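Page 37, continued from 36.
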């Protein structure tokens, strides 16, 4: 028996990049070759386990047997990573399709369960792949990273991303754009997050995010990709520790307290949660001292740690959405009206700079072009709207945005199969 498998999540390099969110493939018989049985089995290829189902629900099965129609009609199969068993290396997961009656292996696919992880727990290889991709993106100040630096500057650009309800969606899009550029360099990379309410002794080292000298300039191990880091023609990164490298920033709101923001039902629920822009987000930024870049909006993005800080902010939003089942833009509690009636902070607004709109009230420039595309996904398109950022897992149907967090599962509310 010959089969055909159409799996859009397979990258041009032959690896399927998956996460906790189910992705679908279509399988069909091309040539039954006179066999009486067309029953096939999906099973795991390695210890980094996948799960399988005929419907987009969880829990899914460790193995799946299905009967393929003799007429070649396709059957849809859903595949996802087993929550809690993410990959550490590119292609270290995958699945096998075999003929149940003969035991013949019909097809095998390499995969990677690629999710955003706590930076403090990364393996050496995961850490170094991320650092190398970031260093390549910066290219000593001449690379694509310059656009990301130029997106996050002072007013009026900062008004597109801060001080209103669009803070969380804008930064989610910003991280997604950066992550896709990193994955164009190394598809195995996912943005790690700095969980700033816990000690992160493995993050603040010379081998990872650097340690400051007496002047506050970061020092790295020999050969580190950030040794040649340049932004705005400035060589190096300024970041003075306002807390011990093995400790945590003082006064930063803990995760449980952050997730408890916005406890009341009603239209202001998201707006109450979005006060995390002040604490823990703002206090995490200002927990560093002196002339640290990361302390101030106009220059914060000069420091790569900025993106790990915001990845944690986005993780907190993702977890809050999951805990409260608030991902549908139609839900009044999932997003609040703009506080200042400012463009870019309404659900239907496209977001600068990806919309390439310039002129008041938008900024005069729009660096970076449209949102980076994905080789395996089409969402959210080149010019996303605020509303596109809420349902990042595709809970409502359709494609996800292509990222998950190591501690935020995929779940469907009743009736949303």
């Amino acid at each position: 028996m010959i089969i055909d498998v159409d799996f859009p999540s397979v990258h041009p390099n032959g690896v399927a990049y998956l996460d906790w969110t189910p992705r679908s493939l279509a399988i069909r018989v091309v040539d039954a070759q006179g066999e009486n049985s067309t029953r096939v089995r999906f099973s795991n290829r390695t210890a980094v386990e996948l799960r399988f189902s005929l419907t987009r629900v969880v829990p899914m099965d460790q193995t799946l047997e299905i009967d393929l129609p003799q007429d070649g009609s396709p059957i849809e199969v859903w595949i996802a990573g087993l929550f809690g068993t993410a990959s550490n290396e590119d292609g270290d997961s995958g699945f096998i399709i075999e003929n149940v009656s003969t035991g013949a292996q019909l097809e095998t696919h390499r995969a990677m369960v690629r999710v955003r992880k706590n930076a403090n727990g990364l393996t050496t290889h995961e850490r170094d792949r991320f650092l190398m991709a970031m260093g390549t993106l910066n290219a000593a100040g001449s690379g694509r990273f310059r656009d990301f630096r130029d997106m996050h500057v002072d007013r009026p650009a900062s008004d597109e991303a801060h001080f209103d309800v669009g803070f969380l969606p804008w930064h989610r899009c910003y991280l997604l754009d950066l992550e896709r550029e990193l994955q164009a360099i190394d598809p195995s990379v996912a943005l790690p997050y700095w969980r700033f309410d816990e000690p992160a002794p493995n993050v603040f080292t010379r081998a990872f995010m650097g340690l400051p000298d007496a002047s506050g300039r970061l020092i790295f191990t020999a050969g580190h990709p950030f040794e040649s880091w340049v932004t705005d023609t400035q060589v190096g990164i300024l970041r003075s520790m306002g807390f011990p490298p093995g400790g945590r920033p003082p006064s930063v709101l803990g995760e449980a307290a952050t997730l408890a923001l916005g406890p009341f039902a009603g239209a202001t629920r998201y707006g109450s949660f979005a006060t995390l822009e002040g604490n823990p987000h703002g206090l995490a930024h200002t927990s560093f001292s002196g002339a640290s870049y990361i302390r101030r909006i106009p220059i914060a993005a000069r420091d790569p740690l900025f993106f790990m800080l915001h990845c944690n902010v986005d993780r907190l939003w993702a977890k809050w959405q999951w805990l409260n089942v608030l991902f549908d833009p139609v839900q009044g509690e999932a997003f609040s009206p703009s506080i200042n009636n400012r463009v870019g902070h309404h659900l239907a607004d496209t977001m600068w700079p990806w919309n390439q709109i310039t002129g008041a009230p938008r900024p005069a420039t729009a660096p970076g072009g449209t949102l980076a595309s994905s080789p395996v996904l089409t969402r959210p398109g080149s010019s996303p709207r605020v509303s596109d950022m809420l349902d990042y897992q595709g809970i409502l149907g359709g494609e996800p945005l292509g990222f998950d967090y190591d501690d935020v599962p995929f779940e469907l509310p009743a009736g949303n199969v």
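Helices lie at 124-138, 145-151, 157-161, 167-185, 255-259, 269-273, 278-286, 305-324. Flag for discussion at group meeting. The first strand starts at residue 2 and ends at 6.
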